[in-house]
Amino acid sequence: MSGNSLRDQLSGLMQARIQQARENSEALQKQKEMLRAKAKQSDKSPDESKKSKPQQKETSRARLTPMPGLPVSERADEIIETIKKNRVVILCGETGSGKTTQLPKLCVLAGRGRKGKIAHTQPRRIAASSIAKRLAEETGTELGQWVGFKVRFTDKTDPTAKVKLMTDGILLAETQGDPLLKAYDTIIIDEAHERSINIDFLLGYLKGLLKKRPDLKVIVTSATIDSERFAKHFADESGKPAPVLTVSGRTYPVEIRYRAPEDEDETDDKSLMLAISDACDELSREGPGDILVFLPGEREIREATELLSHSQPPTTEILPLYARLSAAEQEKVFKPSEKRRIVLSTNVAETSITVPGIHYVVDTGLARVKRYSYRNKVDQLLVEPVSQASANQRSGRCGRVANGICIRLYSEEDFARRAPFSDPEIMRTNLAAAILRMKSLKLGDARAFPFVQAPPNRAIVDGLSLLKELNAIDDKERLTDTGRALAKLPVDPKVARMLLAAKDNDALAEVLIIASALSVQDPRERPLDRQEAADNVHRAMADDKSDFSTFVKLWRYVQNAMEHKESNRKLTEEFRRKFLSPRRLREWRDVYRQLKELTAELGWKINEKEANYEQVHTALLSGLLGNLGYKIPDADAKSAPFLGARGIKFFIWPGSPRVKKCGRWIMAAELVETSRLFARTVADVDPQWVERVGRHLIKKSYSEPHWEKKAGAVMAMEKGTIYGLTVYAQRKVTYTDKDPALCRELFIREALVNGEFETQAPFFRHNQQLVREIRNLEHKARRLDVLVDDELIVQFYDQHLPEEVVSAVTFEQWRKKAEKENPKMLYLSREELMRHEASGITTEYFPKAMEMKGVSMALTYHFEPGSPRDGVTLAVPLYALNLVDEIQTQWLVPGMLKEKVQLLLKSLPQRYRRHCVPLAEYAKAFVQRNQSLIGQKPLLQVLCEDIEAQCSVRPQVQDFKLEQLPAHLIMNFKILDEYGRQIEMDRNLAGLKSQLGQQAQKSFQEVAAQDNEISHEGEQEIVEWNFGELPDIMEIKRKGQSLIGHPALVDCKTHCLLEVFDSPDEAARQHRKGLLRLFKLQLREQIRYLEKNLKTLQNVQMQASMLEPLADVFESFETMREAVIDASLMQCALFEPLPANQEQFEVRRQEAKGKLNLIAQDISRLLGEIVSLTGNVTKKLKTCSDKWVLEDVEHQLKSLFFKDFLLKIGYSHLSHYPRYLNAVLVRLEKRRDEPDKDAQKMRDVTRFVTMYERELAARKGVTDSRLEEFRWMIEELRVSLFAQKLRTPMPVSVKRLDKVWSSIKY
């Protein structure tokens, strides 16, 4: 936003209102004085009256004689005559012609200024005030009496003054209060070549105003003007251009020298600085006089200052000059100096400001031009070559006091190629403010406005776009209520929008401070030689989250300082210590005051309570929606971190305290492109604020329309973007009003056909039940050709439902009316839904449940190859998991058995399969022949026996390739918790039992505890057999079902408890431990005797503790002694059959009492022998050099000696341990002579060990009798292979173990 434009507009409006009130008051006072004067005059004598009249004329008359020696004065009569005869005059006056100071006097001499003042506009405030003072001196009047000036914050013009100098922005602002500009009869537009947007708008406005004001005269002047364009612009009705007068300038000759770099393509800063240094050296040799160097910007001025301070002699003074420079440093330029001065300036010294004493000019030919990018919607401050007119204006700066020399740092050919004139501001700025004013003044379409040089259509479109962003106009480009409110505020539309939102947000106090701060130059100064110190001081006053809030903190600091000041001098010193410009602070306060008065006139109230962060920043956001930014996640360190509107990317201004602290979303006061695109004055914002404030700009898109059962409507994912930035995404919204046709289709397909609908309608329950029944038939038959295609059902509903039915609500509204006429209108029949009859799909072949030990478990069928649910699934309650019989589930259900048998036969090798062809007929006959064996024996075993009986060949179980069997022919198990929720689902029953067996056991016991009878028995602490006979099974009642449980005594250390288990194997294991504890409780004396007399075990334990395989098994003598006692009890009291009642227990106890000591001594002796042999093996292993043999023997020893092995293996297996260990010794002795044979034998053994250990791991360590037998057969195989002379108690070989393994595995 343009700070000067805002300040001028504000000042113009406020001063216009003040002046109007003042003029009304003074006019009334004048009338009173005239009445008094007439009364006095009637009392005076004629002689006295005659004396007073000349006196009054003498005091009020100004000296209007043109200044002699000026070119304009020499042609005064011609100019006066032209003004009298023409309504518009174009005056081209070169620098020094005197046009600016003499034209107002010539206009008065031409009879102007009688019906109104003469308005004389200047592009800059300093020019308006200085020219007014100069005119007052020339006319011999006091400033404001005959000529005054009106600039921002200052109006020194008396009501009776003839001439009023002002900025063009002030005059433009006055059009709001005085649309016909009746206060003026002549308007002089000076320095029109600057072509600011205010000047262009004024010229277009005046062209239309001339038709309404026949008495108005307009004079357009400039030193370098495109006279032909202006003359045509102000052509009369007949098309005759306005007259053009050209006046030569009063200047000294200027020599132009072109000093282009050797390589004109070289445009880097280093070559430019060297060229400037060379030019200054050249001009220094020409003679005394100051040098003015034109540079593009502040950065180049700093670089040139550093270079020239080293290259120029100490007698040279280097002075910078640019707009942001403090007033004190600017004053140095205008003060005389004894040293040669080199003034380094931006184009601020090109017009209006005349730097005294300039003899030489160095023109780089470059300027930093503010140009609006219509594509990116940002202001770009780019360095561009200046036009020919600007170059001539620059060279004219050195011909004011003597012959001058201008060195241009570019070639003459380059100068000739440049544009004759600079692009007017209207061609390179946003036109929103101008368009808003035009609409408020009802001046018609901006595209038809009589601009001197019409802006491109895209500029107008862009201005309209900004007004739409501010919600000032609607889609038809008509003013909205917001737009009409904005038009009443003569400030930049963005600032006006912020103020309007602040009023609604109760944040006007804070936003007035911020808006006024954004409208003036930043009061914080950064002197070239103390930039770091200034930054540190300013950082202490900065806000952590917002640069905007920093202005509020700074304002409060200033206000507090002013309230507690000791004197103005000390206050100024304090501000300077804080690196704050007192002049800019005054400007800030003035703008704030005027904005505050303006809002007060409109009746807006300032909030007394301090506004919070959201209130302030949502108000600011309303005017800055186009300056949003989103932090790019994981952005490259060198690339721009923020994504802005319309795809632009930008950086945070390096001087901002927020540069490393910004959140994900920010807004900026402005985006300016210099070397990069920078965001200045930034703050964090919440995307929810963006959505709320910019709802009129949010572009919504929808994706993933889908039916939702709970909502009863089609929902979609909404995405909201503002200028391409995603404000929110994946927001679920109702889609019914966006695409009714699609919603109707989805409602029919998903709700009515697929059943995703909650309704009490009878037709729906009827139709869905029919569909479920038919689909269940398809799953059982494993063919999807029974139910008709969904499209036929869709067509049925489509024919019956009207177009307005798009959701559950609209459907229910229609249905209630429609069913009154025909209740069965939406009912489907079985015939309509089925393509053919599904014969053979009966409950006999596809039962609904399977019973396992009293528990009825549901069966479900699903046809979806590849799905985990494909095939038949048995729903198993967790408490019944261990009750499931794997053999029974191998047979599946009758309807699927034939297919399974056929594919099993197909997997057999050819030598067996050829006897069973045709396979389908054999499978059918097999099922019929073996009806009585279904579920009683393993399926593969029965199939092998049947093939042997029918074909006289017997395949082995391992000949069937089960991996080729489709998944649906293996029973699927779904484990459910007590609430019916799925815990796990798998086809591996053994794996499920290993994983969930303990949970299942606990759950089963909880179920059993709910049976009052069992619960009562389980609570008794048992120390003797006094609970009657212990049955093999117990019946548990649960919800009408009878579960089969297995009771067992459980060891609780000091006593036993009676518990029920779901698995007979687990019950047996626990019962043996419980019986052992009960015998120990009943044989306390005998056990105490053994504890005293098994002292020989001390030496055995000491020897075992030094042997690695046994060290961890028997940690102490007490541990070994207890293990021997427990093993002895197991041998003499816990042999099969175990006691089942009190009498049998007592008999067994008496038997154990007599045998216990002998057996304990025998086991003690045996254990001593085992430890001794283990020591021999350990010694022998130390001499073994074969790594593989060493690892195999160590692995064997670990498998023999594990925790509690004495108790777990039993006396029968323990008695074979010496033979196993001797076999190891024989092997270690023989392998030295026959290493190859040992290696082959070891490979055979290792294969079985690996098979056993993998199966044990798959079962999570839970073994059974067959697997346990196989484990000891491996040990016997070792003896047979490595020490055959030691013999084995049973025939054992590799082939026999393979056969046993097959029976275990299958």
Question: What would your notes on this structure say?
Answer:
By secondary structure, this protein is an alpha/beta fold. The relative contact order is 0.04. The model is unreliable at 1-7, 10-28 and 37-60 (pLDDT under 50).
Kindly summarize this structure in a few lines.
The chain is α/β, with parallel strands linked by helices. The protein has 49 helices and 32 strands. The strands form 6 sheets. An 8-stranded mixed β-sheet has the order 4-3-5-2-6-7-1-8, sandwiched between helices.
Strand order of the largest sheet: 4-3-5-2-6-7-1-8
How many strands, which pairing sense, and closed or not: the largest β-sheet?
8 strands, mixed
Total count of helical runs of at least 4 residues: 49
Percent of residues in helices comes to 40-55%
Alpha-carbon distance between the termini? Answer: 86 Å
Q: Stretches where pLDDT falls below 50 for ≥5 residues? A: 1-7, 10-28, 37-60
Secondary-structure-based class equals alpha/beta
Mean pLDDT: 85
